[in-house]
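# nightly structure sweep
# worker-07 picked up a monomer target from the shared queue
# config: single-sequence mode, recycle default, output format = structure tokens
# input follows
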Amino acid sequence: MKNRLLIMAASLFIAAVTPMELFAWGGGHNYVNRLALTIMPPEIKSFLGEENAEKFVKWSHAPDDFTLWKDLKHVTICAEDMEVLKSQDMKQPYSLHSHKGHAVNFILLIKAFQAKDSERAAFWMSTLMHTVADEQACNHDPLIHIMTYGFKAYGMDMGSGIGVDFADIAKTKEGDAVIQELLKGVKIVPFTDAPQPALLKVMMCGIEGNAYMTQRGSRIAASYARGATDAVRRESIKAMAELGVQGIQESLNIILTAWEFAEQNKVPELNDAVKKEYKLAMAEFGRKRALRQDSLFTKLIDTTIEKTPFIGALVEPSVSMNKAKLGFSSKLITASIVRTVRNHGKTCRLVDIRDVGKKGFASPKKMPLLIISAGNFHVSKEVKAKLAGYIQSGGKLLWIGGGHANQLGELSKSMLRADSSLMPVSDKYGKDSLTLKKATIVFRSDFKKALGGKAYKFTHNPNTKAGWQKPVCNYYIKGGDDNIVPLAEMTVDQSVMTVAAACKNSDGAVQYIFLPEYFVSPYLLSDETAIQDPSQPVLDSVGTKLLLTSVKVLVPKL
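# output follows
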């Protein structure tokens, strides 16, 4: 009972100093820190003392704060620490979420231990626990994130799963039993006795933790499937428990390493050499990371002999938090596209963006159509060059944006950035769009045949208070080019804009189709209210018709 009251008090304290929409694990951070105390090396726990051990839990959400360091009310940052933070351009607690922030946090913790300041150490231990655990927090998985901040916010009926936060299982008898069993196997050890390599290891914990986390997203989501068995539910609980315990173990290993460095008077330096080594190590890790470590893609990776011709769908592995070349939502959208195409009897294969840089795309004869859920398409010049070569060779492109990144030939030349106040999805984090309720969409040409002539309105609001999944697209297509065929018009008050279009090549065949991401992002234009199995996502009814019609227009004979 005492523990529960302490957790409630900590939650109320944090709610007063931190915007709720920035929470990661949510209440799970309180449980992570509380559980960490139960297996913390005794010398460190004794050093903290009872009062600062409680602060270690109370401050579990401290990094989810954009307040400047000097303006913090719940803690005072000493002058020495302020100098370190200033030297690394860390302006507020939220900046600790970066991989550089992990390294700075590590250095600050060593200094706190050296100064034998237990309150100071409790604060830097707590911030480190938070940001390291964040990399294992399942709500940062591409699937669970959208379930948490998208589907739940829409009021979708997802069934009865185990939850989407570590607290959801930690507070149950069954979940706590699984967690306690996993904790028995945890060994807390310093990971090196060399200061500079230690910084590299700390900075790499984010990308390594992400790879551990994304393997478990679909396992957790499977508990929400209609008819999910008790065995599936138990496996989901285990997956969630593994994430929390992994965050605890990684954090305590770093904390113990900092403790030993302080005793040995070793303080690493976050210099240019370490930063360069980190960039190289991160790039190498990214090159080697298996695509199947993203659970969204695991069951979609082909192990059979390649069938041709096939439709390609460009994908990338996760990296860390919301970092992505193709946009954070691209993974869910692309997985849904591939499964939907296959469910309708066509061959569709994942195309790993890393392979494109080395080998290019398959020929249009083998892959006549490429689908890209592009976001803003922050890819290398080499990938763009390979894409241009594929198009010049006769390849067709279904582009879902985001932006167009000047990759759509004549269509890109006709695309203009709209007044953001007229667009249904705000490009500001956590902000709503005044346009959404007024916007109506009418489909034209082949899309009209598939979807009818009625005016569609948004059935759910993608402008959620939190989340990286907003399908922002601030472009429209101007008229005047005979080779461009309008496919959808959006009306807001007196403004009518073409927001989806096809573009013909010199032979009169359609070579490009552009769809704004908010057309394909799930459950925004359809009237569906329930999801049968979020672990195996497919497009909704409107998205499915748009996809299949686009495929038929682009490659009629496929």
